[in-house]
Amino acid sequence: MSTYELRCRECGKTFENQPRSICEECFSPLEVTYDYEEIKKHVSRELFASRAPNIWRYRELLPLPAGFTPSLPVGFTPLVSAPRLGEKIGSRRLCIKNDAVCLPTLSFKDRVVAVALANARAFGFDTVACSSTGNLANSVAAQAAREGFKAWIFIPSDLEPAKILGTQVFGAELVRINGSYDHVNRLCSQIADEHRWGFVNVNLRPYYAEGSKTVGYEIAEQLGWRLPDNVVVPMAGGSLITKIKKAFDELILLGLVEPKPVKFFGAQASGCSPISTAVKQYSHEIEPQRPKTIARSLAIGNPADGHYAIKAISKSGGWSEDISDPEVVSSIQLLAGSEGIFTETAGGVTVGTARKLIQQDRILPDETTVLCITGNGLKTTDVLANCYQAEKPIAPKLSEFENYLASKIDASKIAAAALDNVTPIAGAAGTQPFSSADGALALEA
Ligand SMILES: *Cc1c(COP(=O)(O)O)cnc(C)c1O
Ligand SMILES: [Zn+2]
Q1: How far is ligand 2, taken at its centre, from the CA of residue 11, in Å?
Q2: What residues make up the domain containing 399?
């Protein structure tokens, strides 16, 4: 007998295991539920730690069919302390969970796809599919190729070129839709009713979503089996943030970490902020939006798990904020320049939102705060296109270089002199990430 099955989140009706995401009684979403009494007898910190560093080390807590053998070491990305970024945004105990380097396609979506495909195989699908804002497309295409599935990928037509190419290269069928993600997703629900395909985020969604829990398990284990005070999570459909919470709750239930309140903070781009808008209005209902932001991986105007994300945030004593597109770009640069991590727009959203939450005193400097960086900057280089000039090339001569260097030093002295005439804003020095003073120092060093 399996230790898990599908259960309706609202009426509690159970459905065993099948490719289905909605309750036939009350039309609420289904979720995987586990026999924790049974699991508790078998798991321990030592057991997990003794296994290879990837998501499969937590296999008892994932919905994996009997006989499943993983073929890829997905996950177990670094959790690193971020003192330089912390100094700039006002946190003394800041950590980054770096899924910009997740295997195989450099986003946290590799976790959810790995778990979804394990189930697609068990349900007998030979074709897998998804509606995607970009990263899911990359991951389904890559893992389908590796596992020998045919793949059909549906995307809004305006995705970043690297995300389109990074899907096609794996040989997937790519269908571009004139419309937003929400249109694409609605179409995929209709296609899933007509074709016997495993849509990872439609009919396989409950299994897919469980893959996100591994972010939470890893954070706890990497903190030495402790929970942080705060987590800041970017939100699209709102699933990841609810699953990190589920992971922490499970670890407490199984006695693997000390019980402790963790505040959940959701991050969005202002141009698509249905969840943060609801939180800021103390509302529990999502008002759908028409997305308009460069953070395309988060551009879901009608988030499937929005209601549950709001609940997770508000019950934890957390909050949600959103930032403008220019702030997304400057936050990408801030993270890269301070910690050497190049994230995509979603990571910019997370860093910029964290900074805002610290300024609002919702996150305090001495609390342990984890920022979830969920995707890689090489996939969204288009948003930085106008930020840097191509320097004029010089001849391969030492004298040319010395001239070049002298001109640079002159330029930075002029910039520094100009700054001497500017009165600093009281109290703001430590929290202004892009004061030109930083730029001048960088040039002189
Ligand atoms: C999909 C995605 C998210 C958000 O995921 P949800 O579970 O839908 O909220 C965050 N970051 C990146 C990079 C993503 O691709
Ligand atoms: Zn129900």
Answers
A1: 4
A2: 392-422
